[in-house]
Amino acid sequence: MTQSGHHAILVIRALELIYFKTKSDTGLKVEQTMAVILLVEDEEQVRVLADSFLQVEGNKTLSAGTVQQALALIEGDETIDLLFVDLKIQDDVEGGLKLAKKAVEARPNLKVLYTSGQAVTDGMMALFVEKSTFLPKPYTVEQLATTLLAKFSIGSCSKKSGE
Q: 3-20+33-150 is classed in which CATH architecture?
């Protein structure tokens, strides 16, 4: 599948999620844990779609397309709960790994969600910071939501009313 094919999947899935989230007669009680998420992705279309989904879910997002932009945000005063970073940033196959290491040095409690469309070796995984996990591309919004909730307790957990 081409990159634009992957992007189309994300667009369709995001639109589906927005539609279903706006239906108010579901009988579901939603419990949410919101977070401030720094999204670092050099592919603008992917960044915009992921950013939109995260905001629809109730999170506050900060976005960066370069390592320099991300470092400026990390060094700022804004609270950041999670770094969501592509492993390859601007032709540096380990750009996300290096950024995550610097980010956790500056903010020791920071959680990290790595993503990539490339194969990840055991050697690369050994370089992941603590409190991190990996989500392979292409991912659907459901896969992103499930990962955020299961690994970081970020997101919504729907229950039938009365439970």
A: 3-Layer(aba) Sandwich (3.40)
